[in-house]
Amino acid sequence: MAKARRVLLQRLLPLGARLITLVLLVLRWTTRKELLDDGGLYERWRAGERLIVAFWHEQLVLMPCFGWWPRLCIMISQHRDGELIARAVRPLGIEAVRGSSTRGSRGALRRILIAYREGASLAWTPDGPRGPRRSAKLGVLLAARATGATIVPVAAAARWQRRLRSWDRMIVPWPGSRIVYVVGAPVRVGGDASDADLEAARAQLEQALEGARVLAEARVGSAAPPGAGANCKLESSLV
Q1: Cα–Cα distance between 93 and 85 in angstroms, integer?
Q2: Cα–Cα distance for residue pair 87/13, rounded to 1 Å
Q3: Beta carbons of 85 and 62 less than 8 angstroms apart
């Protein structure tokens, strides 16, 4: 029975990925976006600089809604539905490597660094894949030390939204919602950074992400639209 279930799920994988892609595209097309201040982010990208974009795990669905990013590579966990999410974001121009800070970390970090050397900027959720919520881990700092890339904290908030009953209380915006994006103060890590330097940068990143989140939420005034149902449960696999 278990084997038959695995075979069925494998066969349904392409369909499930297409459905998720469709949902993300609908949200991208119908939501109204506002960028308070990009902090020179796009100017740096247009100049060819590769960066590490960091955001909290709960805002994963909001980020593809923005509509334009340069070439991006994100780490996706080895959880059972990781392949589903990896396939779903591919048509949106987002590359993915499988791994996390807890499983397959060394190999995944090596692969994402290869993507960086080949020209991709990186996307990272410092509190993924399993939390604690809004608590930055060291993985993104190690990537910054290895690449020399600047970490750019980004936060987003939706006016009409639904909070899922996942560990991060992930935000899913409603079609037509207004989404506000805020870019925080950049974080830089030297190639010779010590453990103490990494911890200081981790605390700085955490503070910048929280500051940007609070500002985005205050600007947009988060709420559920009239008639919205109760929160629903969903397990996420993006790191």
Answers
A1: 13
A2: 9
A3: no
Higher pLDDT, 8 or 233: 8
Out of 95-99, 210-214, 217-221, the most confident range is 210-214
**pLDDT above 50 for 239:** no
Concatenated DSSP letters of 152-210: EEEEEEESBEEE-SSTT--EEEPTT-EEEEEE---B---TT--HHHHHHHHHHHHHHHH
- Alpha carbon distance 113, 189 (integer Å): 15
Q: Tell me which of 104 and 181 has the higher pLDDT.
A: 181
Angle at 105 between CA 12 and CA 75, to 5 degrees: 50
Compute the distance between CA of residue 89 and CA of residue 9 in angstroms, rounded to an integer. Answer: 19
- Cβ atoms of 202 and 136 within 8 Å: the answer is yes
Interatomic CA distance for residues 91 and 135, integer angstroms = 30
**Boundaries of every domain in the chain:** 31-220
The model's pLDDT over 26-67, given as tens digits with 9 standing for 90+, comes to 999 999 999 987 888 888 888 889 999 999 999 999 998 887
pTM metric for this prediction: 0.86
The span from the CA of 135 to the CA of 203, in Å, is 9
Cα separation, 101 vs 106, whole angstroms: 8
For 31-104, where are the alpha helices, taking DSSP H only?
41-46, 82-89
Q: Please name the residues in contact with 145: beta carbons below 8 A apart, sequence gap of 6 or more.
A: 189, 190, 191, 193, 198
Reported as a single tens digit per residue, the pLDDT across 122-143 is 999 999 888 899 999 999 999 9
> Any bridge partners for residue 140, and if so which?
none
Q: How far is CA 62 from the centre of its chain?
A: 8
